[in-house]
Amino acid sequence: MARVNLLPWRERLREERRQRFLGMLGVMLLAAAGLVFLGDRYLNASIDTQRARNDFVRRENAVLDARIEEIGELKTRRQQLLERMKIIQDLQGNRPIIGRVFDQLARTLPDGVYFTSLSMTGQSIVIEGAAESNNRVSNLMRNLDGSEWLEAPNLTAVKAVTAGALDQANVFRLSVRQVQPGEIDVTQIAGHVLAGAAAPGADGKLASKNAQKKEGARK
């Protein structure tokens, strides 16, 4: 006797396929969610690591900036110390010259003339003072011009001032250049040469003056 299966096998097969599909879909969704979670964790960890690196770099930059500032301050102090040492060395080296210059100023000071102020910048000396008359000022200028340690005196101002009913003085201001015996001023020589070309016999006067200065330097 033949048997006929009347059960809905097609429906059951369809249901099984649907169940397998849903199971695979659930697994895929879980896998995707896991990948997203792992990716998010990885990105967060990378961001935290980069932030830590950035913080470290900022701290190191702050330390380097502080050290650079300290180095700049040390360089400034070093330069100031070098400048002070140079000033001290220049003063020590020029001490004999300054003493000789003051000695020459005292020697060239004629009677009836006194100095009120004196300033020296490099080799230029500016003198202010007072004299009893213009002739005294002229004598001072001649004495300065004849000194072997001084040259090129230049009277920049002179004015008569009355201190009382009878007292009268001539206040003056002049500049002079400090030199060492044996130095040659090129501009002064050029001026003497031009003057010698215009006036015969000037070469003999220049040679005589140079010989007198050399003789004074030997003494």
TrEMBL record:
<keyword id="KW-0472">Membrane</keyword>
<dbReference type="Pfam" id="PF05137">
    <property type="entry name" value="PilN"/>
</dbReference>
<protein>
    <submittedName>
        <fullName>Fimbrial assembly protein</fullName>
    </submittedName>
</protein>
<feature type="transmembrane region" description="Helical">
    <location>
        <begin position="21"/>
        <end position="39"/>
    </location>
</feature>
<dbReference type="InterPro" id="IPR007813">
    <property type="entry name" value="PilN"/>
</dbReference>
<keyword id="KW-1133">Transmembrane helix</keyword>
<dbReference type="InterPro" id="IPR052534">
    <property type="entry name" value="Extracell_DNA_Util/SecSys_Comp"/>
</dbReference>
<dbReference type="GO" id="GO:0043683">
    <property type="term" value="P:type IV pilus assembly"/>
</dbReference>
<keyword id="KW-0812">Transmembrane</keyword>
<dbReference type="GO" id="GO:0043107">
    <property type="term" value="P:type IV pilus-dependent motility"/>
</dbReference>
